[in-house]
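Q: What structure does this chain adopt?
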Amino acid sequence: MMPAPDISGHLDGGLRHRLRLAAHWIAAGGVVAYPTEAVYGLGSDPWNGEATQRILTMKQRPESKGLIIIAAAVDQLEPFVEFLEPERMEAILATWPGPFTWLLPARPQTPPWLRGQHSTLAVRVTAHPLAAALCRAAGRALVSTSANRATRPPARTALEVRLRLGGAADYLLAGPCGGRTQCSSIRDGLTGRLLRP
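A:
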């Protein structure tokens, strides 16, 4: 598996500064909106329950549903999930980085606000250069859930984030989404069964 694209050597000063600001907000317990492969996401430090609860409140989403965690590399996911037997993991790793989210067994210490009522956690190594750069700048995997209120269409531009969520996020890391028309597919890691196309 290749790591997510590392654009750090190609960043202009303005973007580098904006990434530092976004990473600062994550570290301070804030909520950041940022582009992903298809839509804007809302992100926070996954270990910060207060920040994650703010996201759930913004979205009007019940904690029981669980959330997705994105990373720039597989090692950022290791604190949250147990890896499966090599044959299954080989198939999963072959899809990363990319818009493919997999349900893997949650570790016992994985907070309930991430996994909801499930014994698994939805995880992905993102292929979006800016989302991956944010994970690297923050030094961790991030919560990633679409930037919208429940039942409303997800935001696909920075303007739509502002119109739909106002100033609810602490920082908006503006940039283009990856061009996909649908959010990432979700599959069960153990069986490969497609849960969301």
